[in-house]
Amino acid sequence: MSAGQHLPMEALQNQATGPLQGIRVVDLSRLVAGNMLTLQLGDFGADVIKVESAGAGDTLREWREPHADHPDGYDGWWRTYARNKRSLALNLRHAQAMPWLKRLIATAQVLVESFKPGTLENMGLSPEQLHADNPGLVIVRLSGWGQTGPYRELPGFGSLIEGFSGFAHKHRSAGGAPQLPNMALADMVAGLTGAFATLAALREVEVRGGQGQVIDLSLLEPMLAIMGPDVSNFSATGVDPEPGQKIASPRGSYRCKDGLWVSMSGSTDTMAKRVFEAIGKSDLFFDPRFSSNAARLAHDEELDAMVAQFMLQRSQDDCLKHFRQHGVTVGPIYASPQLIQDAHVVQRGVYIQCDAGDGAEPTVMHQVTPRLQGTPGSIRRAAPLRGQHTEELLTELGANPQERQSLKTLGAMECR
C-alpha cells in the first residue's frame, strides 16, 4: 500500500470552471517559478497552455525521485505543478513554428516567459511587437536578477538568489556554514508574487480599461520582500543581526524524550508567562532577566536550556498535551510520513489522491489553495504528456489537417 493510500481520492473535475475562466495564459517558462505562477492561474480556471520544446519539453519533467516502479524515477514535480495545463510542443528554432506561436499569443491575455533577458526580442517577440497585435496582453518576464541592471545576463537559479538575498547567511548551521534551503524557495516565492502581479495587471485591463504591460519579475526582489526588516534595521542602527538571532524568546525547536521534536513560540509576554507556568517556573516572569522580550533575548541561552530540559523528559505527545493545556503555542515538527497522516490535514483534504483516469496511477498532491467559498478552484486536468494537446491547439488556431501534417513532417511540432 502506498504511503498516501488513506488520503481522499478525487476525480478530475473536467467540467468545473473558476473565477479566471476565459483567461488564456501562454507559458513559455521552464522549471519552477513560472510553473508555480501558472499553476495558481490554472487552478482557478485559466486556460494555461504550456509551450514546450519539441523532443525535450520543460526541464521540470526531469526532476525525478528514485522509485522502484518507475525506472526513470518518479516525476512528482511535473505531476503536481503541471496540472491544469495543456501541452503544445513546438520547435521554436523552426521558421514554420513561429507564426503559429505568434498566432497563439495573439489570442492570449497573459504571456509568461523565463528566457535570458533579450531572448524574447531575438525571437521577434518583443513586447512592442506583441502589444501591436494584442494591446491588452500582460507579459510576465521572469528572470533571476531582473530585466535591467549589471547582473541581468548572469545565471539566476534560485540557489544563487537564496545566497545573495541574505537568506543563507541568516540561516547558518551550527557549524557556521551558510545554509541554503532544501527546497525551491526563491522560485516558489517569485511564482506566488507573479500570480498576484498578473491579476493586478489584468484588473487594469479588464476593469479600468487600461493597456497591457510588462511585469519585470525577478527571483531576487520577492525574496528580499520576505526577509524582514534586517536591511532597514541595519541602515538605521549600523548593526547587522547575527546569523540565527531570534526575534522572540522563548522560541525554538525542542527534542522530546522519544526522539521526536516540537516547535514552540512565546513571542508575547502573555505567552511567555504561560510557558513559565507550564515548566513550573512561574516566578521567572517577575525576574528582570525574563520580564520582557528584550530581556529574555539577552538571556535566551539560559532560558532555552530550561525549556529544552523540560521537553527532553517527556514524549512528543505528552509535551503537546501539557503545553496546550497551559494555552502555549506549540506544535509537532513533522516530516512527510507524519504530515500526510495528521488528522487535521486528512480531514481538511489538504493532500489528495488525484485520479488521472485512463488507468493512470493516482498522484498525491496538494489541494487547490487558497480556498474560495463562492468560486473555488479545481483540478480539471492531469499534468500533460509532452505535446499531448498540440494538434488540438493548432486546430483551435485554424490549422487544417494538411498544415498540421506538414508541421509534423518538417519537425516543427510534436504531438501525442
Describe this structure in words.
- This protein has about 425 residues and is an alpha/beta fold.
- The chain folds into two domains: about 10-230 and about 380-415, Crotonobetainyl-coa:carnitine coa-transferase, domain 1 (Rossmann fold, 3-Layer(aba) Sandwich), CATH 3.40.50; about 250-340, formyl-coa transferase, domain 3, CATH 3.30.1540.
- About 35% of the residues lie in helices and about 15% in strands.
- It has 18 helices and 15 strands.
- The longest helix has 22 residues, at about 185-205.
- About 35% of the residues are buried.
- The model has no long low-confidence stretch (mean pLDDT about 95).
Keywords, separated by commas or semicolons:
18 helices, 416 residues, alpha/beta, Rossmann fold, seven-stranded mixed beta sheet
Strand order of the largest sheet: 9-8-7-2-3-6-15
The N- and C-terminal alpha carbons lie at a distance of 32 Å
Using the 3D structure, state the CATH architecture of the largest domain: 3-Layer(aba) Sandwich
> Based on CA inertia axes, which overall geometry fits?
globular
Q: What do the pLDDT scores average to?
A: 93
Q: What is the number of strand segments?
A: 15
SS element count, helices: 18
Radius of gyration: 25 Å
Quick description:
The protein has 416 residues and is of the alpha/beta class. The protein has helices at 31-43, 76-81, 98-106, 119-122, 127-133, 158-164, 167-170, 185-206, 220-225, 230-237, 269-278, 293-298, 300-312, 316-325, 336-339, 343-348, 390-396, 401-410, and strands at 9-11, 24-27, 47-53, 65-67, 70-74, 85-90, 110-113, 138-143, 214-218, 251-255, 261-265, 329-332, 351-355, 363-366, 413-414. It has two domains: 9-228 and 378-414, Crotonobetainyl-coa:carnitine coa-transferase, domain 1 (Rossmann fold); 251-339, formyl-coa transferase, domain 3 (2-Layer Sandwich).
